[in-house]
Every structure is written in structure tokens, then in C-alpha cells.
Protein: Rhomboid protease GluP
Amino acid sequence: MLIPVRDHNPSDKRPYVTYGLLAVNILVFISYYGLFGNDTALMRFFMQWGMVPAAISAGQGYDTLLTHQFLHGGILHLAFNMLFLWVYGDNMEEEWGHARFLIFYLACGIAAALAQYISEPESFVPMVGASGAIAGVLGGYLLFYPRARIDMFLFLLVYFRIIPIPAWLVLGGWFGMQVFSGLGPSASEDGVAYWAHIGGFIAGVAFALPLWLHRGGRALWAKTHGHPPHPEARYRIAKTDVPPAGRRRNPWLR
Structure:
């Protein structure tokens, strides 16, 4: 398992909108956390505020294209989405500015919901989660900083290590996995909105493209070589490998 823990791309401004989105998502989750003890009540809540494709097809629930972005199906669902937003959101907010970043984020979430709707327009399964909007942030990040280094936490049984990997490999690989899974035969059975991830990511690239061109486009890449435009953060990475257990020598054996 590879999990992003931070990037080497410090922002020069405080990402107030990113902080606000983190806070709102967590507070909203806390507000309905008690429903997890009652499956019927929880499903009724998600059917009302989550994006239900069949309802959209019937001309209802257009507000859920927005509200679904602030709901999550569990603690891990919330934690992973907020981690991705924490790692990548500040740099995109710095590029866009606070107000425009909020519009960009919400627009990516709406585009993600529409992509999921198009893939299953008659589904009665509610879609919840910020992952579509955050996928848009990932798409914009990839466009601006393809060679920014991302520290990935590698977890393999009892082996742990933090490995810096370029953003184009991390985010490109993530997007490829979403496409592969979305086209797979079990895509509609495992409970993951792959097409929302795909749609959000593509929307993020498309929405960020005019800003990237305004910043210079290929000339920006030529100037920065795909790296952040400011000095990269330097971290002291301590060894996290589990030390090998030594074999105790039997004193009776020579």
C-alpha cells in the first residue's frame, strides 16, 4: 500500500479555503455520525442528500450535485479524502487564489457527479464523498507540477518506508488505476464511484488548462522543468525499516 503523506511543494500563502473545506467536511460528518448505528436512517439520509442518478434522471435532486461532496460513508472514507486534500490542495489554492479555488473545487465535484450519473443514469444507489472534487485538484496539480516530489508511505506487511516519487508517476498511476477499474466487469459492484474520480480528474485538468496557459503553458514547464516554481521543501527522512531480528547463536554449537 502506498499512501501520500506530504509533498515537497511548499505554498507561500495560507490555504484558508483548503482549511475551511477540511473543517466543513469533518463537522458535517460529525453531525450525522450517530446515524451509523441505524442503517435505515443512514440510507434515508444519503438518499436525501447524496447524488442519486435515478432522481437526477427524473428531474429531481439537482442540489445533491453539490451536497454529496460533503458527505462520507465512513471514517476511513473521510480520512483518506481529507489526506489527499491536505497534501495537494494548498498549491492549487495558491495558483487560483482563494475564491477562484473554491469555485474550481466545487465545479470539479459537480463534473465528477455528472460523469458518474452518465455511467449509471438509472441507478438508485446514492453517491457520497469529496473524492470527485479532490480528483479535480489532483488533475490540476499534475498539470502544474508534474515533477514535484510526493512522499509516499510504503506499507508492506512489516516493512515500512517513506519514498519520494514524482507527481506524474503518483497521480498518473492513480488515474490509470481508476480507468482500469472503471472499465472492469465489477466496477458497479464494489461500491467505488470510479467514473466520478475519472470525470473529476479530467475536469480538473480542463478547468486548470486556461490558467496554466496564462502562466505560460509549455514555457512554464521549460522554465521550471515541471518542478515547483519555488525552492522545494527538504525533509529529513529517518529510516523506518523494521530492523531484522538477529539469530541467537546456540553456545553448544561450534
